[in-house]
Design brief:
- The structure is a single chain.
- The protein folds into two domains: 2-80, no CATH class; 83-210, de novo design (two linked rop proteins) (Up-down Bundle), CATH 1.20.1440.
- It has 215 residues and is mostly helical.
- It is globular.
- The chain has helices at 27-41, 49-74, 95-117, 124-146, 155-186, 191-210.
- Helix content is 65%, strand content 0%.
- Bound molecules: iron/sulfur cluster.
- The site of iron/sulfur cluster has 12 residues, from helix 1.
Length: 215
């Protein structure tokens, strides 16, 4: 049964499981479904914040155990790892992160406005896309730049990691652009804000195209 699950690079997916064609072969998705079903069987609400936080704690505990097991198998002594070996990255130093964060802040304000004024009929899907990806783009941009000075990873692994992260950011940009394009026709009172958000997304794309390490 375990062999059925292809180990996808979860770091590179956008976690929109409801739209993903890889559900059947995804261990992350399967585990989450099992977690939810277990709670329902016990008569609990799996989305209750307390229950959810307990689950997160459990997941971290299991992850820590897995890391220790892997380290042991590789002969790495984690207790002796030096803190100074970890690179200290200031994400703000990199243009792509600054742009992604600017986008996050402005999109967040726009989303709050939409929530206050009410989401028009037919705009629910674009709204959900906008909401989902505005955090993901910023989070993945942070992840991208944090890898720039990580010399603990081998070059080929770092390159795969980088390309995967960039692909998710690009997907988030495309989906957000499509959502904003949809809104352009439906929200005439918000044209300026929508145009501003599209402009930032365009800048992030150009930064990725031309100089991802630019400062
Ligand atoms: S099912 Fe969800 S977690 Fe798994 S690859 Fe698809 S989007 Fe990612």
């Amino acid at each position: 049964m375990a062999d059925k699950f292809i180990p996808p690079p979860y770091n590179y997916c956008d976690y929109r499981c409801s739209e993903c064609e890889g559900q059947e072969n995804c261990r992350v998705y399967k585990d989450d479904q099992e977690r939810v079903m277990d709670h329902f069987r016990r008569g609990e609400d799996p989305y209750d914040p307390k229950i959810f936080m307990n689950d997160i704690k459990e997941i971290f505990k299991n992850t820590e155990e897995m890391i220790h097991k892997c380290a042991e198998e590789e002969g790495i002594e984690l207790d002796q790892a030096q803190d100074e070996e970890m690179p200290d990255v200031n994400a703000e130093d990199y243009a792509v992160y600054r742009q992604a964060f600017e986008y996050f802040e402005r999109a967040h304000a726009f989303i709050k406005d939409l929530q206050r004024s009410g989401i028009p009929d037919g705009m629910q899907l674009p709204y959900e896309d906008l909401m989902w990806y505005h955090t993901l783009i910023a989070a993945k941009a942070g992840r991208l730049v944090s890898g720039f000075i990580d010399d603990l990873l081998e070059e080929d692994i770092r390159s795969i990691e980088e390309q995967g992260t960039i692909a998710v950011i690009r997907k988030g940009i495309k989906r957000s652009q499509a959502a904003l394009d949809n809104m352009l026709g439906e929200l005439p009172n918000n044209l300026e804000e929508i145009a501003g958000l599209l402009d930032i997304l365009g800048r992030i794309e150009r930064q990725l195209d031309t100089d991802i390490r630019g400062k």
